[in-house]
Amino acid sequence: MTRKQARRRKQKKTKRFELPKIRWSHIVAPVLAVAAVVATYFASASMLDRPIRSIEISGPFQRVTALQIEEAIADELEDGFVSADLGHIQQRLVALAWIDEATVARRWPSRLRISVTEQVPAAIWGERGLLNTRGELFVTEARHIPAELPRLSGPANRAPEVAQRYLEVRDRLIPVGLDLRRVHLDERGSWDMTLHNGVEVRLGRRDVDARTSLFLDVVADIITGRAADIEYVDMRYSNGFTIGWNNGSRTPVEDPEDGVEGMLALRGEG
Prior knowledge:
The protein is of the alpha/beta class.
């Protein structure tokens, strides 16, 4: 019995597993090809990255000079034609107070082309600040203040809101022959406006949108016809408004839908 078991063990064959042979040529060849492409790229970039020889600047140049632009990006021009960071150069230009937009492009073989658009002042903010057409404060201490610009004022963090209300009201007033001279928002959130003819409009700090709509829909037409007689309009009422006349009298209007013009004529106000 023991002999038979020994024979069976001898008859069993040992199985061997062989790993597939690695062909190094299949790995080395692609690596060498990639390395060659990278080396060619850097060699070409090195040859193309010549010094920047000149810059071409175009723009209106009413508030900003070409010299100011050159000074703002002087250290950026020390980089080569290819390695110069155009995005960073653009940021440097837009950081200038009177630059609104700027584009920078390469022009072969060694020139940069720069185009700038200047800010357009739309209103005076506070004493010497200037807002652009988007209501953004782009100059805090302007040297020259255009006298024809309207004056807006309020908390610094609410400048866009004040500018937006000014633009919305102004767009509604112009068709009826009126315009805004001043819009003010105080620290408590109370609004008041002054028209170009000197009439003051008091909106207060509650229901400002509704009061503004009432003023534009009803009161603006009254002012158009009798501006010389009116000193102020007080919109700070829940059911109407009050007109203050230059002679010192006041006319409360509790229900504007009852015919304001006829009521004023009957009372002989103004």
